[in-house]
Amino acid sequence: KMLRPAYAVEYDFLPAYQCGPTLETKRLAGLFFSGQINGTTGYEEAAAQGLLAGANAAAKALGASTLVLPRESSYLGTLIDDLCTKDLREPYRMLT
Q: Burial of 29 by CB count in 10 Å (0-12 exposed, 13-18 middle, 19+ buried)?
């Protein structure tokens, strides 16, 4: 007998500390990750990471300087710093 309907969302993710502050993976040059695969939830976090990872992927492809946002400079800088330097055990949500 079902007591009450419910659902669970579970997904695998890459521990984001395996990425650098450009969101490029440390093990494979030229591979950038953003969004839920980094262990974040929320559209805002995914969109922000996508912008940074995309800009850095394009910069790398063009041989230009990559963009690194310091923690002190913005919400996105704080998010990326938290993801890349902390061993997060639960989905990361910045804007709750």
A: exposed
CB atoms under 10 Å from CB of 10, counted, come to: 4
3-state secondary structure the chain: CCCCCCCCCCCCCCCHHHECCCCEECCCCCCECCHHHHCECCHHHHHHHHHHHHHHHHHHHHCCCCCCCCHHHCHHHHHHHHHHHCCCCCCECCCC
- Measured distance CA(23)–CA(66) in Å, rounded: 10
The pTM for the full model equals 0.81
Q: What is the pLDDT of residue 4?
A: 83
